[in-house]
Amino acid sequence: MTLPRSTPCAEGVDAQGILDFLDVLERQGIELHSLMLARHGRVVAEGWWAPYAAGRAHLVYSVSKSLTSTAVGFLVQEGALTLDDPVPSHLAPAAAEGLHPNWTRVTLRHCLTMTVGHEVDAWDPAFRGLGPDVREPGTDWLPVVLATTPEHEPGTTFTYNQVATYLLSRVIHAATGSGVVEVLRPRLLEPLGIPELPWQRDPLGHELGFTGAHLTSEALLSFAQLCLDRGQWEGRRLLAPEWFDEASAPFGPRYREPSANADSVLGYGYSFWRSRHGYRADGAFGQFGLVLPEQDAAVAITAEVGPNQEVLDAFWATAFPAIGRPGSAEADARLVERLRQLALPVPLAGGSRPGPETATFRRSSVRGDTALPPAYTGLAVRRDGSDHILVLERGSDWLEVPVGTGDWRESVLAHEGWLVPVVARGGWASPDRFEAEVVVIESPHRVVVKAGLATGTATLDWVRSPLAGPDPFDLAVRATSMG
């Protein structure tokens, strides 16, 4: 099932504003991966920056929180939970035993609104200093998380806190015997026509809750549209409108960090942010589901950017004023053509130069927070017709990545049963220098490879390092055993 299509003109949108938005992105070097805009429930603009494409799911980072929140909303509607339930009441007695009094007063509402009481995000401190065994299958992260005692009384302070939403995921499982995805499947995914919702999980198989969900652009837009329509979908009531009214309203203390941007100080609801216009589901590196009630519009954006605010600023200044402004058929046609041609800047746009049939390189010293981990010790390059095969040495494994010269080539990295889809493009920038980009295509992220014959060394660096960790397999969501 897909959302109906229309044209900007027919729905009262001036396509020129969207063209202006694309111009600003290009001029400022802001990297989007997809853009979809719907008005009156009809898609009027959609585009993907190749090699990203419509059918690809994309890691949406903290948009996952809004999905987890919605799962809680369904269970509240059905009477399985209430927002004032203390979190420990849904945990196993052994997990709840001996908790600090501040933990005993933390409710589901505190978790939804990031008012658990921690001074700072407690996720990284909880796991700091723990060895790799913490990732072993069967390891329970709940005791690790609960060891981080909230310093403040619940409800008295706001701290954006991954622990809060992870606890919601665990409560959902405890209350239903199934995870977030299984709760959402009959209530949200199937009605919206979303066939699957890949989600990164903890070693016990629980969805992380706060991150890890993967959505296609249309699935993200459909979710934003459901929020816009306050739980109504194709004439069917899925979730009470009052839930969305509460979820989108600012709750309690505000975000007051000195570095906070203009769209982060307006309040936080039940895992949704208020915005200068409407409200939003918001994920790191520029993942957005914008809900604009006054304009009867919804927007889905995926990206890889630094500050999320730069995307919002550009959108508010250009595309937003065009919603409700008369346009023209001519601008509509220009927009269609522009969206059809979207693509990321490609490495070696002029094509690959002649180079050796085969070459090997050792990894140069690993520096900076964007480098792949030291486990990647070297690489080799060999010709494959007019293309190349890049071979990454990772411990005792050799990971082959086909690299297209004239187009992106697709493959899957496999390690210890985990699968990471990638696409790659590049070649010999000169007779002694090989360059390529490897896009982890179901995420915002890509790796830049640079290798030189003169030194015999190579660098492997992320454009922006993933939050889960520096190894591409930290982004894995599917294992071979899952089919």
Automatic annotation (TrEMBL):
Q: Which InterPro entries match?
A: Beta-lactam-related, Beta-lactam/transpept-like, Diverse_Enzym_Activities
Instruction: Specify the superkingdom.
Output: Bacteria
In what residue span(s) does the Beta-lactamase-related domain sit?
33-310
What Pfam families does its record include? Answer: Beta-lactamase (PF00144)
- Name of the molecule in the record: Beta-lactamase family protein
What organism does the record attribute this protein to? Answer: Intrasporangium calvum
Q: What is the lineage of its organism?
A: Bacteria, Bacillati, Actinomycetota, Actinomycetes, Micrococcales
